Amino acid sequence: MEPQRSPLLEVKGNIELKRPLAKAASRLPLSGRRLKRGPDQMEEALEPEKKRTRGLGTRVTTTHPRAAALNSAPQTQGQTAAVPRAPRKSAPRYSMAVAPVLKTQKPGPVVPAQKPGTTAAPPMVGGKKPKRPAWDLKGQLCDLNAELKCYRERKQVLDQENQQLQDQLREAKQQASVLGAERRTLEEELTRVRAQAEQGQRELGNLSARVLELEERLGTQEGLVQELQQEQLRLQEERRGLAAQLGEQERRLQTSEASLSDSQAEVASLRQAAAAREAVLAEREDRLHGLEMERRRLHNQLQELKGNIRVFCRVRPVLPGESTPSPGFLQFPSGPCGPSDPPTRLSLSRSDERRGTLSGAPAAPTRHDFSFDRVFPPGSGQDEVFEEISMLVQSALDGYPVCIFAYGQTGSGKTFTMEGGPGGDPRLEGLIPRALRHLFSVAQELRGQGWTYSFVASYVEIYNETVRDLLATGARKGQGGECEIRRAGPGSEELTVTNARYVPVSCEREVEALLHLARQNRAVARTAQNERSSRSHSVFQLQISGEHAGRGLQCAAPLSLVDLAGSERLDPGLALGPGERERLRETQAINSSLSTLGLVIMALSNKESHVPYRNSKLTYLLQNSLGGSAKMLMFVNISPLEENVSESLNSLRFASKVRSLAAPSPSGFLLTVGVCTLVLQASGTCIPKGCTFARQLTIDFWGCLN
């Protein structure tokens, strides 16, 4: 069977069979205005001149004899060849003659009808068309019209064929697009069928594997069924045993439920008892809080009755290598209640050599008697000293400002009293570490009552009226000019030192590290009284803040522990070198600040309207710890050596003057404390645990009365 040929290929073959027509430019003579014609020829020449048109531009050889004559006509000078173009509309009279030529491509001789007045075309000679004479323009025009008509008919035939071919081409394209769509559809269908077949093969393989797996599982399940049947028999036996046990457990459960009901009743009664105890506990907490507040109030009254300004005297022991003083040089008379009473008086004997020389006999030594709130002989230890001031430290924890000074000449034991001795011996610890240990311990006890405390420490020195930070580290060491005393804020009474470190502390180890750093940074120098003498006032301040969140109570107070610089008088006969001049300036600054301190204490005791705090950096920094409800204690430290008797007398006289400014009445003080104690005992109220000093004071008071 012969394969079907594509319509597109047929159309392409039909187009290739057609050949383009050969075109040649036809040449016509120019206008006859430049030809020399006679009068009889002018009329014939004008008509073709007016009707001249351009042909198709293709040279076509015809059998018309006139066309040959036109082509062979000579051209005159100045004429150009013109190609006549045939009009688009063909003449009807030439249609019959041109049709055979278009069909066979071999036109035969066509003799058109002659118009009157025209000459006939000459006959063909030897198969060639004879040329018309040049003057026969009308004949030439007729030939051209005949050729034009032939070409037009041929063009119509070609147009028809072209239209037929285009129709066939469109049909072929449509058929090709339809066949392409069908081919794509069939290809997609074929792909889908192949995919389905592959999927079917895979599913078939999976099903086969699944069948094998299920067969294996079936065999396994059959074995399991047998095992389960055996297990079922065993479980049935166990079920019968458990049923018997269940009956027993139900009987026991009934017994337990009865016991549970009794226990629930007991729990309810215990809860009621617990609620009652909680109520009692809350009542006792309220009572305890009231007692704590009452303790604070009575404790403050006790401290005020003892005096907001108190003076203690401490005599240091004789150090190895020093001369032992004479037996009557220092005497410590007993207290008003006998030898068991702590001493409060001191007697210092001084011999006047000048009086003995004038009379010729040795004069009796001059005796100087001094009375203080407490006197510590050379044998008193650090623990005994701190026990005396522990209640004053407790006042700081209760919210009252407290300031403790150590005053005296160089080498009298001020720094030892405040900071302690070297070597880390616990028995030699000074007031600063012992006070902080006491504060940490009491704050921990008060935590059970709802109080929480925080402590922030600072340590500065005042050297030549310049404030330096003793806790500075690195490049800030010794930069005293950067520290200034300023108010904490607008309208605030709290004072702070700018650029100084304020370190939160919570344990003794942190305090020891701060004290060690401060000892390294403090300004010291060698003097005649001491190999290493402190030439500045050191001020250790601990800001205490307490809060009772449950009751909305707060308290805050500073505890200031001050180690004053050595107080020596100036020797006017001393030769001043460069080093002595520096010591002289230091001594002048120290004595000036100590004098200002005495003036401030005098103004506070006299309740003057103006207190000269700003006359010294020391008093300006401590003004919140000196006035108002603040408690102040001065330790006057003296040397036991006879060679320092002059400086010792000056220190004792200054301390006696300070004590005389605010000394309370002993009888009124004892009577008031005794009455407060009697009231507490008569009402059945126990004295709080913290009031150990009040207990001892009550015992001493009744012992003195008996």
From TrEMBL:
Its main location: cytoplasm. Residues 148-308 form a coiled coil. It is found in: Cytoplasm, Cytoskeleton, Microtubule organizing center, Centrosome; Cytoplasm, Cytoskeleton, Spindle; Early endosome; Nucleus. It comes from the Eukaryota. GO terms for cellular component: centrosome; early endosome; microtubule; nucleus; spindle. Keywords: ATP-binding, Cell cycle, Cell division, Coiled coil, Cytoplasm, Cytoskeleton, Endosome, Microtubule, Mitosis, Motor protein, Nucleotide-binding, Nucleus, Phosphoprotein. InterPro entries: Kinesin-like_fam, Kinesin_motor_CS, Kinesin_motor_dom, Kinesin_motor_dom_sf, P-loop_NTPase. Binds NUBP1 and NUBP2. Interacts with PPP1R42. This is Kinesin-like protein. The gene is KIFC1.
